Amino acid sequence: MMSLASPQRLRVLVGAGSFADASAALRIVERLPDTFRTELGGVLVEEVDTLAAYQIPKQRIVLVNGTTILAPNLSQVHSLLKADAKAFRQSLARAADSTGAQWIFVQDKGELVSTALRAAAEWDILVIGYRQLNIIPGKIVLLEACCRSDDDMHEAARRLSPDRIVFSVKTHENDTIGLQNSNVFEFETLENAMRALMRTNAQAVLVDLTEGPIRSPDDLARLLEVSRCPLIVFGTSNTNTMLEHSTQIPPPPGKRSYDGAP
Fold first, then answer.
1. I need a labelling partner for 172 at 20 to 30 A (CA). Which of 55, 73, 118, 148 fits?
2. Cβ of 97: how many Cβ atoms within 10 Å?
3. Which stretches of 27-99 are assigned E, i.e. beta strand?
4. What is the pLDDT of residues 16-51, one digit of tens each?
5. How far apart are CA 12 and CA 133, in angstroms?
6. Domain boundaries, the chain
7. Distance in angstroms (rounded) separating the CA atoms of residues 226 and 195
8. Residue 14 — φ and ψ, nearest 5°?
């Protein structure tokens, strides 16, 4: 993997299903070194399954405090998505302007994780947004394969917070599970690590798709579900092999002729 000691410029794409989720991701991105956000992208994903649910009349939704309200109709949902797109775009522009980075914003439809992965195929890092419900700041968690490490991922975690832990997962039979210590926890299986994450207050989870143990879109979707926080995903430029089709999302600005922010 590349080292931050090199002049390599890393490009970050933020994928989210709403502005609230995108905002949580952008707060993480803004804390990364400038070399991690020399080019910024955003993709707002209209989740088709969610939209289908709003077509059912008189649906009710449960709020965090347990009360229920009448769900918005499809027309209202589209209005909310339009407002979310505008807010996401403006926040992305502000984050880019702080470092002079180029930026690009698009919208797409589909399932959040797989659509974001397709969009990130020519980017270095994907940050999948997830609004944080816990008011107490959580830990930075590195989820990595046993005996392997990504220097960029560890540097990013170090820059984000001193309060970080490592979840190390055995991925080969000859991997050796060592003694636990105060900030490194080792697991025999990815499922065991997922269960531990469900009990962990995390503010972000970092993974590398090249190194593992996350190997598929289903793994990543499950990780988002159990961690309930933004995911910082490295190795996204190698995701074409795990996806059967490619969505038509523009590449980073540096990959094509670019006249500035859209």
1. 118
2. 12
3. 39-47, 60-62, 68-70
4. 999 999 999 999 999 988 877 789 999 999 877 665
5. 24
6. 11-255
7. 8
8. -105, 125
- Confidence band for 170, pLDDT divided at 50, 70 and 90: confident
The first and second tokens of residue 213, run together, are: 């143990």
Q: Give me the sheet containing 164-169, strands edge to edge.
A: 102-110, 39-47, 11-16, 125-128, 231-234, 202-208, 139-145, 164-169, 184-187
The residue-averaged pLDDT of 147-170 equals 86
151 pLDDT band, cuts 50/70/90, is confident
213-231: burial string, b at 16+ Cβ within 10 Å, e else: bbeebebbbbbbebbbbbb
H or E stretch at 142: strand 139-145
Largest CA distance in the chain: 57
Which pTM value belongs to this model? 0.81
159, 140 Cβ separation under 8 angstroms: no
> Class assignment of domain 11-255?
alpha beta
Q: How far apart are the first and last CA of the chain?
A: 32
Number of separate helices (H) and strands (E) present in the chain: 7, 11
Can you give the length of the chain in residues?
262
Rounded Cα gap, residues 54 and 118, in angstroms: 26
Contacts of 75 (CB under 8 A, 6+ apart): none
For residue 207, pLDDT over 80 is answered with yes
* Residue environment code for 242-253, b if the CB has 16+ CB neighbours within 10 A, otherwise e: beeeebebbbbb
pLDDT at 70: 56
Q: How many CA atoms lie within 13 A of 137 on its CB side?
A: 8
